[in-house]
Amino acid sequence: MNQPNRTISPAGLEADLRRSGAQKLLLAAGFSGVVFFSVFTILGALAPGYSFARNTISSLEFTPLGIAQRANFLVFGLLLWAFAAALHRELGHGRGALLIPLFQTFSGIGVIGDAVFIHDPLHLVCDLIAFNSALLVLVTFAWRFWGDRQWNGWSAYSFISAILMMAFLAAFGAANHLGGPAGLLEKLAASTRTLWSALLAARLLGGARLDPES
């Protein structure tokens, strides 16, 4: 039986061959947000009285399934660190080469803090660190991608993702104080970054390079 022809560009093939198995695993951590989102969605469906629209993700830590959600935060934070290590290797040099992995690392610290500190004010501080660091990753990547033809459109996509995330977080803050679907708005903010990270990881694993000279 004839197999369908697949064309792989020489640059993509060479990039893939240069990546070690360990680096590919680290890049796969870019999909960790999808896993995190899936787990807390399942936990929310199982937790008595939990509302996906009204309640925040962290509210699950105060349900009978709280230990599972704390573990979900912890694993997610560690995988964000793993992705930071992958980005550090991929970026090489140039704009954002130091700042992007640093902000990604701080995002992981904030998420791990959410697992450790379940009560305010420390939990709120960790939330602020996690979300603001995630926003800084998007903005810095928009700067990195600016003018890079190999990543055409990604500068705008990164910047728009940051704007959407800030809008959802602002709406979340208002809904949290005035009443409304605060939980849904928080999840929309998180899913905006989750989709961006997954698409970036998929492109990198497909052979794309952030630093053409690496």
Word description of this protein:
The protein has 214 residues and is mainly α. The chain has one domain (21-205). The chain is 70% helix and 0% strand. It has eight helices and no strands. α4 (66-91) packs antiparallel against α5. It is globular, with a radius of gyration of 18 Å.
Characteristics:
214 residues; mainly alpha; 8 helices
Q: How would you summarize what this structure contains?
A:
The protein is an all-alpha fold and 214 residues long. Helix content is 70%, strand content 0%.
What is the number of E strands?
0
Note the main sheet. Answer: none
Shape: globular
Low-confidence stretches: 1-15
| Rg | 18 Å
Order of helices and strands: HHHHHHHH
Number of helices: 8
- Beta-strand portion reads under 5%
Q: What is the helix fraction of residues, given as a range? A: 55-70%
Spatial separation of the terminal alpha carbons: 39 Å
Number of domains: 1
Helix/strand/pairing class, anyone? mainly alpha
Average the pLDDT over all residues and give the rounded result.
Answer: 91
Topology:
Layout: H1 10-18, H2 21-28, H3 32-46, H4 66-91, H5 99-116, H6 122-145, H7 154-178, H8 182-205
Helix pairs in contact: 2-4, 3-4, 3-8, 4-5, 5-6, 6-7, 7-8
